[in-house]
């Protein structure tokens, strides 16, 4: 089993906290070369374990007791901070946070780590559930160069593209901007496909055209929102098992907050936030591409 040179020594074990739709795929890719001590607040994830190298534990403290390097993949700032506080009760731990949280929260976490003689880096991801499963995620890393070089070998076990985004918080800034663009993009693609369908055009045909034309984008050729166009994406599975509306809304909230603090005009981002806020009233647990279904329904 390959070993990773951490900031404090050698280890062929790693910790993973947050085994949701994304985390479970990431953990399985790590388990190809490592023993993974894993924890999630909901025990339901354990039914998805497909590797004997994944070792479920009953609490965050057990992860910290068994691994010096720990990855978190959690829903929001508050939960990440709470988990980090538990991890940082020990010293000489390296926390790689792949959650999508506010850059400002990353600054706080870095200070917590420094104060407790630990190490923190933000390393959010893009690529969806499929990318997590296939090990083709994009990682956006906020860290000093030396730390970035030390954590990169681990990230390459889960991802295809690893970007150094500068100092702490840089990864979250990149992810925040990416997800705001994605939210806007998905709405625009859904609107175009709905318009075509309502005028008699097959969404699959229109998608084929758009995928080789100037509107080509991830929401068209990789994560199409129209059911039946692509067999293995959430839109063809009743919008289950993907990136939930409530999480997209959370990410948009991060972007809008940052835009206000930085004095940036984000009118389309704010409009997207309003649309997903409405969807969240009834479809919070569904994939964010469900915006297409609502556009069709509202014809």
From TrEMBL:
Residues 169-293 form the 3-hydroxyisobutyrate dehydrogenase-like NAD-binding domain. Residues 13-166 form the 6-phosphogluconate dehydrogenase NADP-binding domain. Gene3D superfamilies: N-(1-d-carboxylethyl)-l-norvaline Dehydrogenase, domain 2, NAD(P)-binding Rossmann-like Domain. The keyword Lipoprotein does not apply. The active site is at 175. Keywords: Branched-chain amino acid catabolism, NAD, Oxidoreductase. One of its GO terms (molecular function) is NADP binding. Its EC number is 1.1.1.31. It is an enzyme of class 1 (oxidoreductase). InterPro entries: 3-OH-isobutyrate_DH-rel_CS, 6-PGluconate_DH-like_C_sf, 6PGD_dom2, 6PGDH_NADP-bd, HIBADH, HIBADH-like_NADP-bd, HIBADH-related, NAD(P)-bd_dom_sf. It catalyses: 3-hydroxy-2-methylpropanoate + NAD(+) = 2-methyl-3-oxopropanoate + NADH + H(+). Pathway: Amino-acid degradation; L-valine degradation. GO terms for biological process: L-valine catabolic process. Belongs to the HIBADH-related family. 3-hydroxyisobutyrate dehydrogenase subfamily. This is 3-hydroxyisobutyrate dehydrogenase. It comes from Paramecium tetraurelia.
């Amino acid at each position: 089993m390959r070993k990773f040179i951490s900031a404090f020594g050698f280890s062929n074990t790693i910790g993973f906290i947050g085994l949701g739709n994304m985390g479970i795929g990431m953990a399985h890719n790590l388990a190809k070369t490592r023993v993974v001590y894993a924890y999630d607040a909901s025990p339901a994830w354990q039914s998805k374990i497909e590797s004997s190298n994944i070792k479920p534990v009953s609490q965050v403290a057990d992860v910290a007791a068994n691994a010096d390097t720990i990855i978190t993949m959690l829903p929001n700032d508050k939960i990440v901070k709470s988990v980090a506080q538990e991890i940082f009760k020990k010293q000489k731990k390296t926390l790689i946070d792949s959650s999508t949280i506010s850059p400002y929260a990353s600054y706080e976490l870095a200070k917590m780590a420094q104060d407790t003689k630990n190490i923190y880096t933000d390393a959010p991801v893009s690529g969806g559930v499929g990318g997590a499963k296939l090990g083709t995620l994009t990682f956006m890393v906020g860290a000093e160069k030396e730390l970035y070089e030390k954590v990169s070998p681990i990230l390459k076990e889960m991802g295809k593209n690893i970007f150094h985004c500068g100092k702490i918080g840089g990864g979250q800034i990149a992810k925040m901007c990416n997800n705001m663009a994605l939210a806007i993009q998905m709405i625009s693609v859904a609107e175009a496909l709905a318009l075509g369908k309502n005028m008699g055009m097959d969404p699959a045909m229109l998608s084929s055209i758009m995928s080789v034309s100037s509107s080509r984008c991830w929401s068209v050729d990789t994560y199409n929102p129209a059911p039946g166009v692509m067999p293995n994406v959430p839109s063809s599975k009743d919008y289950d098992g993907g990136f939930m509306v409530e999480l997209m809304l959370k990410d948009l909230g991060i972007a809008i907050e940052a835009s206000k603090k930085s004095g940036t005009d984000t009118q389309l981002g704010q409009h997207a936030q309003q649309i997903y806020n409405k969807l969240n009233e009834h479809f919070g647990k569904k994939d964010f591409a469900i915006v297409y279904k609502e556009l069709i329904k509202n014809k």
